[in-house]
Amino acid sequence: QVQLVESGGGLVQPGGSLRLSCAASGFNVDYYNIGWFRQAPGKGREGVSCISSSDGSTYYRDSVQGRFTISRDNAKNTVYLQMNSLKPEDTAVYYCAATEGGVYYYSWTSLRLYDYWGQGTQVTVSS
């Protein structure tokens, strides 16, 4: 049974850091493209970052470039999202998702590409 479980969310002050984890079971993360998405209240779900299974390429939305880092630990079958210099506008529920299909710089944010989704973890950035 394929399952993705996010953890690591919480309340942090502006400028602070959090590391989100996406633990996978039922498949190997090194064979899947893993994306992180987020959804703020009243807004649509948007792509935050993605790591490719083929060559480890990473993609980021412009607003998090330089602040967030995605990484993968194949031994732990887990993908991480290190979030630094957090801003109030980063407040959202964060989801990880997986797909065997190819992801590219122009397509990785498309929700319909992803076959499996986690339940989400809340990140709140507030003073």
Task: Present the secondary structure layout.
Elements: E1 3-7, E2 10-12, E3 18-25, E4 33-39, E5 46-51, E6 58-60, E7 68-73, E8 78-83, E9 92-99, E10 116-117, E11 121-125
Parallel strand pairs: 2-11
Antiparallel strand pairs: 1-3, 3-8, 4-5, 4-9, 5-6, 7-8, 9-10, 9-11
Described by strand count, sense and barrel closure, the largest sheet is: 7 strands, mixed
**Rg over C-alpha atoms, rounded to the nearest angstrom:** 13 Å
Mean pLDDT: 96
Number of strands: 11
Number of helices: 0
Proportion of β residues? over 45%
Helix content: under 10%
Low-confidence parts: none
Shape: globular
Question: Could you spell the SSE succession in H and E letters?
Answer: EEEEEEEEEEE
Q: Distance N terminus to C terminus?
A: 40 Å
Short description:
By secondary structure, this protein is mostly beta strands.
Main attributes?
single chain, 127 residues, mainly beta, seven-stranded mixed β-sheet, 11 strands, 0% helix
Description:
The protein is mostly beta strands. 0% of the residues lie in helices and 46% in strands. The chain contains no helices and eleven strands. The strands form two sheets. Strands 2, 4, 5, 6, 9, 10 and 11 form a seven-stranded mixed β-sheet that branches. A hairpin with a 4-residue loop joins strand 7 and strand 8. It is globular and about 40 Å long. The mean pLDDT is 96.
